[in-house]
Amino acid sequence: MQSNRAVRTLSILGSTGSIGTQALSLVRLHPDRFRVTALTAHRNREKLFEQVREFRPAFAGLTEPIDPAEIPEDLRFCHFAFGEEALRVAAAEVPADMVLVSVVGIAGLAGVLHALRAGRQVLLANKEALVTGGHLVTDLARRAGKPLLPVDSEHSAIFQCLQGRADNQPVSLWLTASGGPFRTWDRARIDAATPAEALRHPNWSMGAKITVDSASMFNKALEIMEARWLFDMPAEKIRVVVHPQSIVHSAVEFRDGAVLAQLGVPDMRVPIAYAMAYPERIPTGGEPLDLIRMGSLTFEPGDPVKFPALRLAGECLAAGGAACTVLNGANEAAVAAFLREEIPFGGITRLVSAAVEALPGLPADTIEDIYEADRRARAFVAQRLREGNA
Predict the structure, then answer these.
(1) N or C: which end of the chain has fewer CB within 10 A?
(2) Euclidean distance between CA atoms 309 and 314, whole angstroms
(3) Where are the domains of the chain?
(4) Is 285 left (phi over 0), alpha (psi -120 to 50) or beta?
């Protein structure tokens, strides 16, 4: 029987990364529901070319420019652009019902703003857009009448739980965390950890930056900030709960005492599919959750002493202005230095804490303010690295 359901068109910013490739696997699984119109990548041209061959979008782009002569002859049916233009065109000019923003870092902010200004539905897999520009993004989404659909597993879980709220007021959010590879380590051992150790996540397969953030718990700091804007919840009402099995993806406590949680196997295709097909649910091709086989589920409090990022999140939200942008920019720069083996793992937190302390009171009223705060945070980290002070 032929379906009368309209095909949704999709633009993916960051198509060669973990989220982007999993989104494309869902397009492959449901060709009657989704059609890709634009794809962008940072520098992985060969993978992008393969995706263009398979999904045949009207547009593709690389944010790291190349010579257009390097585009293979069989891909000349597709229009290409490079540099910052690639994200702008894919987000706002190519016809698309939805724009999945899965680029890494503050680079995602511009893509989100471009998409919202063009009236697109944003599927948000980029924490930093809300961490750095939360007030700008949420105000634009509200005026556009396009609610942000979260793709992060934790925020998708909260969003799903809120669908059953009726008139029951949410009073707190519980963000679950796996604890990463260093959950059982002491502080001294964590401080001396190597990149190879930090990249061994026990449950999830992700890119290097987010995997390191998981090990340091800076991913939870960013998620607290993201949740504050997505769900209009003050930081003191957002709890981090360490849950090593990664089965409960997050929960919401309501005024009447009920707690709703979303459970599932650690598979990012579930939250991606929920955002792509919202408000419907579609099969993902993943394995079902077997609670009997799983056995026990355990929970521990987040430890802000062992993982100071949890404390810094609340402090930066309370400080306001561009404090969250400073934290994010310093963290991106420090993680890059750690992956280059220029600093020990503990140096990430030390550099971020120092940047937040050294750059108070910066404004965040415009996107230019945000980019300037980000620039200053990165410059501060670079200077400390040159001085060997990490």
Answers:
(1) N
(2) 9
(3) 8-150, 151-312, 320-390
(4) left
Kindly report the CATH class assigned to 8-150. Answer: alpha beta
Burial 291-312 (b: 16+ CB within 10 A, else e): eeeeeeeeeeebbeeebbbbbb
What separation in angstroms does the CA of 315 have from each of 124, 320, 339? Answer: 25, 9, 26
Query: CATH classification of 320-390, choosing from 3.20.20.70, 3.90.1720.10, 1.10.1740.10, 3.40.190.10?
Result: 1.10.1740.10
Question: Over the chain, what is the mean pLDDT?
Answer: 94
What's this model's pTM, rounded to 2 decimal places? Answer: 0.93
* Residue 1 pLDDT: 37
Handedness of CA 7, 8, 12, 18 (dihedral sign): negative
pLDDT digits (tens, 9 = 90+) for 81-116: 999 999 999 999 999 999 999 998 888 999 999 999
Count of residues in the chain: 390
Choose among 204, 219, 269: nearest CA to 21. Answer: 269
Residue 267's nearest CA partner among 280, 281, 249 is 249
Burial (CB count <10 Å: 0-12, 13-18, 19+), residue 239:
middle
Q: Quick check: 98 and 10 in contact, CB under 8 A? A: yes
Which residue, chain included where needed, has tokens 């420090």?
334
CB burial readout 127-140, b (16+ within 10 A) else e: bbbbbbbbebbbeb
Q: Residues 6 or more apart from 101 whose CB is under 8 A from it?
A: 13, 14, 91, 108, 111, 112, 115, 122, 123, 124, 125, 126, 129
* Residues 23, 271: Cα–Cα separation, whole Å: 10
Over residues 346-383, the pLDDT tens digits come to: 999 999 999 999 999 999 999 999 999 999 999 999 99
> Rounded distance, CA 78 to CA 58, Å?
5
